[in-house]
Amino acid sequence: MELIKNTMPTEPAKILSHFNVPKNSYTFKAITNGLINDTYLVIVTNKPAYVLQRINNNVFKNIAGVMQNIEQTLPLLNSDLYSSIHVIKTKKNTSYHKEQGFWRVLSYINNSTTYNTSTDKNIAFEAGKIISEFHALLSPINATTYQDTIPDFHNLIYRNNQFFDALEKAKKERTTAAKDAIEFAEELLPDLLDFCFTELPIRVCHNDTKLNNILFSKNTNKALCLIDLDTLMKGYFYYDFGDAVRTIANTAPEDEKDLSKITFNKELFSSFVDGLSTNKNLLSKDEIASLPLGAVFMPFIHGLRTLTDYLQNDAYYKVAYPNQNLDRCVSLFNFSKKALDNVDYMNAILKKKFS
């Protein structure tokens, strides 16, 4: 598939006109906290009506596969605890439109919001509860029917090879600036590579369950659903667990420079597991046993990816300033270390909550 440069459309209304939405005077508001896709709220009479997204096909090269995974999943994500999102088809009855990129339109859930971080234990509980419901609703599915939208996304062997290849080719000034992060990666990689070979059930996973990919009700703070489903594909439950923990137990931003602000908040972790364990039969004993190291693994692999991207001169993630990827890496590695220091605590909490 050809790669299409992500340039801001001069007429987003023209893009929207290709979709089955009522004719109206729409305005568009950019949502800027995403690292991959370009996202806009479609507003009518001062209220959001739809979400318009340009899918980054430099990252997601199989757009048809992305949308196929989403379309086969969304009808199943519907229960008293889980709010539905719908794909709005184009006038040609397709799930996306190609023009200056690849575009889709999704329904908008009224009075919803997201949080990048939160110190609220109820938010942590609700995050655990909605992730549990997400997996419970999808547990009957044969995960092998899903296409890998990013092949080897959480494959640490692959990411390890990428890292060492980037390290070999990197500019000296970047390897010098990243010296401490490189040493940490080289120290922890052997243990986590061994962990990768754990035999666990393969599930349909979200694969990017950071806190701001969960919608909450503005009125009640109840979790409504998970969003940004491009990475829906097979995986292990500890992927979604670890990704959530890194943004729930840690209340600092992903690129926090002051490492003293990066913490492993035990109360928030416990509340998150309380929410997760509302469905005590969801996980096998082996899956539960894998979760503490999963909370180490996920921030580490994200940190390794941002370090690799930094060594490759920021080819993948959007950056707002030259060393942002390195700052992300150092922050993620720092939380990974703090999670490692709390493995015994996590084990004890998980055994207690899931008993």
In percent, how much strand structure appears in the residues? 5-15%
**Unreliable segments (pLDDT under 50, ≥5 consecutive)?**
1-9
Distance between the termini: 49 Å
**CATH architecture label of the largest domain:** Alpha-Beta Complex
Major β-sheet, in short? 6 strands, antiparallel
Given helix and strand content, the structural type is: alpha+beta
Question: What is the strand tally?
Answer: 11
CATH-defined fold name of the largest domain? Aminoglycoside 3'-phosphotransferase, Chain: A, domain 2
Number of helix segments? 11
Q: Going by CATH, what is the homologous superfamily of the largest domain? A: Aminoglycoside phosphotransferase (APH), C-terminal lobe
Helicity range = 40-55%
Mean pLDDT: 92
How would you explain this protein's 3D organization?
It is built from 11 helices and 11 strands. It is an alpha+beta fold and 355 residues long. It folds into 2 domains: 12-63 and 85-109, Phosphorylase Kinase, domain 1; 121-353, Alpha-Beta Complex (Aminoglycoside 3'-phosphotransferase, Chain: A, domain 2). The strands form 3 sheets. Strands 1, 2, 3, 4, 5 and 6 form a 6-stranded antiparallel beta sheet that branches. Helix 3 runs antiparallel to helix 7, helix 4 (156-169) runs parallel beside helix 9 and helix 9 (285-311) packs antiparallel against helix 11 (343-353). The longest helix is centred in the C-terminal third of the chain and has 27 residues, at 285-311. Mean pLDDT is 92; it is low at 1-9.
